[in-house]
Every structure is written in C-alpha cells, then in structure tokens.
Please model this.
Amino acid sequence: MKPENTEQWTPVPPVVTPGARDAAPPSDAIVLFDGKGLDQWVSAKDGSPAKWNVAGGLLTVEKKAGNIETRRRFRNYQLHLEWRVPKGVTGAGQGRGNSGVFLASTGPGDAGYELQILDSYKNATYVNGQAGALYKQHPPLANAMRPPGEWQTYDVVWTAPVFAADGALTSPARVTAFQNGVLIQNDAVLSGETLYIGKPFYRPFKDAPIKLQAHGDPSAPISFRNIWVRELASP
Ligand code: MG
Model:
C-alpha cells in the first residue's frame, strides 16, 4: 500500500461561505426568520398566514394564535434558532417560558417531534421535559441555560425516520443538538413522536414542516430571532 491508495479525491464537498459572524446564515441556508416578516410561516391549524408578533427584529409567540410552522417541508437538515425567555418571567415547572421546536410536524396541534423550549434556569421539572429534552424521551445531556432575558441558541441536526412502502420503520429519527454551544443531544434515537401522554410510536411520513409551539402556559411569551436551516442529503 502507498499513501495514495487511501486518499479520496471525489466527490469534492460543496463550498459554503460561512456567515459574517458565528450563527449568521451561511451561503446555502434557507432563512426562515431574519427579523422582518413571517412569509416563511403559516398557522399550523389551517395554513393561513402566521399571526405571531414581529417587532424590533424579533418574533414573539402569540399564544391565542396557536402553533406556527414553515411553509416548506424538510427531510434531513441542520437548524439554527435563537430564543429568549423574557426577563422577570413568572411561573414554575412546565408553566414558565414553555414553547418548543417540532423538528418534524406531523399534524396539527403538538403532533410531531419536539425539542423542548422552556425556562430551565433554576426551574425544576421532569428532566425529560426540561429545555433541551426530546420531549418525554431524552433528557438533555447538560443544562446549558442562560438566565431569563438572555438569548439562547439551538443548533440541531435532524435525521428524519425512514419508512418502507408498507409503512414499516426502516430507520428511526435521530437528533444531535447544542444549546449555547454545549452538546445536549448526541445522536439520540427517538422511539416515535414525542407524546404528552403514553408511549411513543411512529406514524409514516417523508418530509414535514418545522413547527414552533404556542404553549398555553400563563407566563409571558418567549421570543425568537435568527432562524435558518440547511438541507442535508439523506445519509
Ligand atoms: Mg413545549
């Protein structure tokens, strides 16, 4: 053997120009929210225009309007989003800054695969429901929360489940995620959709919108900014 025998020269990885600063969308990203409008989002209930509040470059949950989801559907991707629990937030447990990002929305309401968003800064709850949990399946590997009033980042790699033509599961959904640069999910394998009640199970789908949760807890609503996604080829 020569060194050349183990060199791979093709295919050449695509050139992607990074954002001007960390977390700015790179050149091949689909920008889902840049502070200006909600044209990429619709009501998860009926597909009508999303009615959350956009002001000052921020997107703030409008709880009465319900969940919103992307117009586009995605399969495998890298997602970046930033979220902030309001300073002085009140409430406890699941009732303090609750929202969530459904990495695949498989129907109206909370159907899908939720990466939990919550104020988990000095706020105890069931650990598989705290911020960074894949809801009721995988607690985060660490609590990387900044206090309310400060921005949090999520960087997520979503690998969609694959189903055979007859609907049987071929390979499960997988999630790797960082919060504020800290690894919180390491190639976690899901047992199905994230359910509030009962044991998870899979329902076949191919691609799906990304959904943000308008949780009904009584605390002040959270805000989002700088949301982008990069589609990935199937493994
Ligand atoms: Mg939630």
In short: The chain has one domain: 28-232. The domain at 28-232 is CATH 2.60.120.560 (Jelly Rolls).
